[in-house]
Structure formats: C-alpha cells, structure tokens
Write a structure and sequence with these properties.
The structure is a single chain. The N and C termini lie far apart (60 Å). With 281 residues, the chain is an alpha/beta fold. The relative contact order is 0.13. The protein has two domains: 67 residues, Chemotaxis Receptor Methyltransferase Cher, domain 1 (Orthogonal Bundle); 194 residues, Vaccinia Virus protein VP39 (Rossmann fold). Strands 6-2-1-7-8-10-9 form a seven-stranded mixed beta sheet. It binds S-adenosylmethionine. S-adenosylmethionine binds next to loops.
C-alpha cells in the first residue's frame, strides 16, 4: 500500500475538489494535501490514491465521505465581532436601514444569512448585535438568521455554541455577561441567542439549495470567496444577489472584492469598509 500522491493524481484530486466545492487547492500544496488526506484514505481502506480517487468520484457530495474531505481541506478560521468597521456599519447604518424598510410592512421580519458561518461566531455575533440594537423589542421583528456551511463538523460545533479563548477576545464584558453563561473552561451562548439562528449544512456548489434562499435583507459571505476561482465566485455571488430582496445588502471579507465578479451591486462606502447593495427594483 502506498499513500504517495503522484503529480497526475494530485491534479485529478484538485480538479475533483474544485468541482465538488469550488475550493481551489493551490498548485504548490501537493505534500500538504497528501498529508491531509492520507489518513482518510487509510480509514476508508483504499489501497492507494488511485483507488481513493476512484471512490471519491463515485460518492455523492452530500455523503459522509465527501463531508470528511471538505472538513480536511477547508479553513475554518473565525472569531466573534470580526472586523470592527463592518460590525459598526451593520449596527449603526445597515440595521437601522433594514428596520426602516421593514417598519412599513404589515408583517415585520428581518432575514439574515450567514453563508459559510464556520463554527458559528459570525451568526452569534449578528444575533448579539440584533439583540443589543433592538433590545426588548427584538421579538417583534421576527429576526431569522440562517447560518450555513459546507463543513458539517463546523455546523455541529456552531449548534453547541460553546467558545473559549481567542474566539471571544472582541466581545465586550457586558455582552459576555448578557449573552453567554460560564460553562467549564469557556462560555456557552444563551438559549435566547441560539433561538434566533437556524443552522444547516449547505455547499455553495449545490445550485438547487442556493436558488432556494430568497428575500434576505442582508447576506454575510465573508472570507470564503478567496478560496474559489473566478468562475465559482461568479456563480456564488449570482446566487447571493438572487437571494437578496431588492435593496438588500451583501457583506464580503475586507480583503475580498466584487470587481470582475458581479456588476449588479451598488457599492456603499462606510468608514473603513465597503458594503454592497442590490439595487431597489
Ligand atoms: C475562513 S471561514 C469564514 C468564516 C466566517 N464567514 C468569517 O468570516 O469569520 C471559511 C468557511 O467557508 C466554508 N466553505 C468553504 N467552501 C465552501 C462551500 N463550497 N460552501 C459553503 N461553505 C464553504 C468553510 O468550511 C469555512 O468554514
């Protein structure tokens, strides 16, 4: 049994991973990919990478085998209240604008999508900001935060809502006291916060599921487009555009850009950050 990944097999594996998830494994990461997948290959009892490739190509992306591949190749780095300028723009400008629009509606409802939410720090941050901004009246707005990720392990961890150390660095003490309770070495989110969020696995490559997301007031899709090639970025951002109601907002990572990706958005400048808006109908 050999777990060496040949150049041709590396190419085939890279292509397969990109086709199934959009994730581009850089050309110079052969050894790293080999290291990440060798034990998976062994767990599956595959003879070598040729047999492993064969197995992967016949498995559905939604099955446990591909879930394990996605878990191993994705980067889950995240933390609470990431990017101060975006946090401020959301609380001080975007949320008031959303409530202004929703106020006119008979049935008020704030719909937020945290797309590629990793282990949950982003959607919980949004839930905290909503609760802080809307106070006792938060329930009257029927806020729903949909939080999705390709990595089912990350989603499971997000649903637990238990955090320690660095992830919480940006959370001010009064917010920590109000929205978490101490548990063991760390902090667990309150059930009120948890109740604002629906978690579910969702792969951006699943066009049918992506097309099913509609009427969002705001979508956060941060620090994930960088892992995709230009064609997949276009495909994902087109879905996100369609998922927004006219006038809805899109927030991407501060090092990401929509230039050459999608021309349909208006770009709004806030101190230290740019936020995109689907034009009003
Ligand atoms: C670096 S984290 C970003 C987390 C959070 N949005 C933030 O900015 O802190 C990137 C996440 O994108 C997810 N991801 C990668 N490819 C994906 C895909 N095709 N569909 C959905 N999520 C994906 C990864 O599993 C990972 O959790």
């Amino acid at each position: 049994m050999t777990t060496e990944l040949s150049t041709d097999q590396f190419e085939a594996l890279r292509q397969l991973i990109t086709r199934r998830s959009g994730i581009v494994v850089p050309e110079n990461k052969r050894t790293s990919l080999e290291g990440k997948l060798a034990s998976h290959l062994a767990e599956l009892g595959a003879r070598d990478f040729a047999a492993y490739l064969q197995r992967l190509s016949t498995e559905p992306s939604t099955g446990t085998i591909w879930q394990e591949v996605f878990r191993r190749v994705s980067t889950n780095e995240t933390f609470f209240l990431r990017n101060a300028a975006q946090v401020k723009a959301f609380s001080e400008h975007i949320l008031p604008e959303i409530t202004r629009v929703q106020e006119k509606r008979l049935f008020k409802r704030i719909k937020i999508w945290s797309a590629a939410c990793s282990t949950g720090e982003e959607p919980y941050s949004l839930a905290i900001q909503l609760s802080e901004a809307l106070g006792d009246k938060v329930g009257e707005w029927n806020p729903r935060i949909l939080a999705t990720d390709i990595d089912t392990d990350a989603i499971r961890s997000a649903m637990r809502g238990h955090y320690t150390g660095r992830a919480l660095t940006n959370v001010p003490r009064p917010w920590l006291n109000r929205h978490f309770h101490v548990e063991g070495e760390g902090y667990t989110v309150t059930s009120q916060l948890r109740g604002l969020i629906s978690f579910k696995p969702l792969n951006f490559a699943d066009d049918k599921e992506m097309a099913g997301q509609i009427n969002m007031d705001i979508v956060f899709c941060r620090n994930v487009l960088i892992y995709f090639d230009i064609d997949f970025r276009k495909r994902v951002v087109t879905h996100l555009y369609n998922a927004l109601r006219p006038g809805g907002f899109l927030v991407i990572g501060h090092s990401e850009s929509l230039r050459g990706v999608h021309e349909g958005f208006n770009c709004i400048r806030f101190p230290g950050t740019l936020i995109y808006q689907r034009p009003e109908a």
